[in-house]
Batch of 3 targets.
Target 1
Amino acid sequence: MSLKQLVLAGALLLGIAQAQFASTLDPSAQELLQRVTGGGQEGPVVQLGGAPADLLKALPPGSRVIGTVTYPGLPGRGPGGNTTVYFDSSLPPGQVVKSFAATLGPTWKQATGTLSPYEAQGGFQQSAQITQTTFYRTTPPQILRVSTQVVGAVTQVSLSRQEDENVKQTIPYLAAPPPLPPGFLTLPKLSAPKGSTVNLSGTGNSSDGITQNARIETKLSRQEVINHYAAQLRQAGWTLVTQANVSTASSSIWTFKQDGRDRLGILIIAGTSPYSGTLISQGTR
């Protein structure tokens, strides 16, 4: 968690304690929050347990609203800003999205595909899958982003509305996402071992390679983890060349073809749980 997120959480807790679940933070907590996160500009406004009326009406039936954070428009981006409503739903993620699609009406369209090609790069998949769905309309120009994550029996949802000047520049890409560039590199999607917690810790890209790192917390042995991922690499068409084990790491080297070219792949699982996982795709000369 970043420093700003820690301060935000602390300010929220302070506001809850002092305001006794009032609809807005105690003025002193709100001032502290704006001073720390505002960066010299007007900071966010927090509303506990509530949401703007128009967004509240769009939420799925039975939603439990946690609160709303509103960031004002930034200098040079015109009026408006970003408002995010946080709420819980008993519906599964797919039903949450369908509820929004039905409630928003015909002026809203659902974006298809991904805005950034790097969102489709594959590799280690996080155990707690976060789904992202985007709706947009041109009059007035607005973007709604719905983010869902299942935690236990609850779907945690954030609904973000963007209505600053950048919306006009973004909507054309949502309506017609650009194709992946020629030779764009991807990795097979590797699902997490059952009962494990996997979080991405970094991704690096070069003109002819990808390196992805993940933190893997599990009760499985290191060899069981590498076997789990190796089976998925075989299904994706990778061919095992060799493997090696030392006291602190297990690794395997693979070959595969992408866009008609021979490539090398490397999978490394190191340390003890939580393990450090590394997946590499590199072109051959």
Note: The chain has two domains: 49-175, 189-283.
Target 2
Amino acid sequence: MEWQVTLAISGPITVNQKIRFNTEKGFDDPFWSNIQITAVQHGVKMDIVARADNQEEANEAALYFAGQALDYLCLTINLPLYVSQSGTQFKPLNENVKRILTREDWINSFRQAREIAIDRRTLSRSLSWYRKGMVSEDPIDSFLSYWSSLESIGSRFAEDNQRTRSGIINKICNCFDQMWGSCNEWKIIPSSSDKLNYFHHLRNGIAHGFISVDIDTIKVISTELAIIKNLSYEFLQDWKSRGVNPEPYAER
């Protein structure tokens, strides 16, 4: 059965006119889905045709499908994009400047997201973590999400040697080396590999409970948030463009 699912996408974006296009959807049994995007006050309204046995599954399929495209688009334009998990409730935003997205922007986001989901599953997950970091209103959740975007690629693509076998920090460092060269050439934190140690210390302390989640911790995390966000952004942009493609095997 086919269903029309309406999604509320909130963010500092708009379109100049109603946009319609078809895009390929699904992996094992792909089909072409109709998509319509309309400008609204706090973002855009997206109508997607989904195939499913019931209403709930249709909504879940549309959220998954659109979510991957929004993950890719979020990194591309570097702006937070929220999608309502159910219904058409928009998140009120006080934005007087909005990015105008074209039909080509949307088509490319859906196409690229699908290709990445097929051939580069680890990168697809990292893009999802990055968007989660951007849309979270909790600085701790944002911090952990940005760290996870780096950790997922580091744990999968670090070169196997004695140094990287010692833990995730060295795995991430190795992926930075693969992209940017020696530590003094790293983007955002040149000659500052200790910053990754500090990020990992904060991540572990929060995750395992030996750092209290109190106002002081929130202040510390908030101070570091812009750094880890920009680090994740620059690394994912470069990895997307110049990293391993396709992956040695695509996890499904």
Note: The chain has a mean pLDDT of 92.
Target 3
Amino acid sequence: MKDKKVKQVGVSMGLEVLGLNDFVDTSSIRKKIKTYIESILPRINMEDLSGWRLTFFINYRHTDLIGVFKKFFRYPSDREYEISIAMPIPDNTQAPYGMPSAKDGRVGDFLPIRSDRFHPLDPEYHKYDNLDQYIIASAIKAIDLGFTKGFTCYGKKIKFQDL
């Protein structure tokens, strides 16, 4: 049963922060996040997805908070649900390990998290020593928040289950 659940999930990343790949190993980060997701699958009622695939889309961007989109995106032709997570990447004025600002003083176009669409989380930049550590820990926090709150899918709540 676990193998079926593992094949049912994926992780993809969007990079709206130019040059992020020069500062972190996004491939390694994606693997670590996927390993974490696989570890929590027994606690999630994946069978209620009726065989559809679940993809976590982590979008690294210039924003104020970590945001977990409150609803799934649905892609019926692919039989896929997507959970969207907005992940702010700090600049070097917000955290010592942050990205250097571009010539215009920004690391990307600023898009604030809207609490009517996202479950917001404080990025807590001060808790981490480097960008890789921050990204992995923040992705885990966001995933846990999403499955604690749950996602409604055709009348069923996909969330952590009591073990």
Note: The chain has a mean pLDDT of 88.
